[in-house]
Design a protein that fits this description.
The protein is mainly β and 103 residues long. The chain has one helix spanning 18-25, and strands at 3-7, 29-33, 40-43, 49-51, 56-58, 63-67, 74-81, 84-88, 92-96. It starts with a strand and ends in a 7-residue tail after the last strand.
């Protein structure tokens, strides 16, 4: 089974070197390059759908917690454990990346 790799950064998807990184990763699996603040996420708690950038982000903890702006459910938790990144979606139904209508 091929890997699915999401490449993003905080400088936007047109940042210098990002396409070169994506090309270098193509031999490892399917590569998606996307800007995550515009990705949409659905809350399991209240059913609302918002862009990731519209949700409340708490970054002062030992990781990052993204909470629903409507019901305060934890949608996404990211922590670093040694050399690994652990991503947990405790109260999310789904996370959608890409531009709507480009199917």
């Amino acid at each position: 089974m091929a890997s699915v790799i999401l490449v993003t950064n905080d400088d936007g998807i047109h940042a210098q070197g990002l396409s070169a990184l994506a090309q270098a990763l193509e031999s490892l699996g399917e590569v998606f390059v996307d800007e995550m603040t515009s990705a949409r996420i659905a809350c399991e708690g209240c059913g609302s759908v918002e862009s990731v950038g519209a949700e409340h982000a708490y970054v002062q903890a030992p990781g990052i917690v993204l909470r629903c702006t409507h019901c305060d459910s934890a949608l996404l938790v990211m922590t670093r454990t040694g050399s690994r990144m652990r991503i947990w979606f405790p109260r999310s139904r789904w996370l959608e990346t890409g531009e709507p209508g480009n199917d």
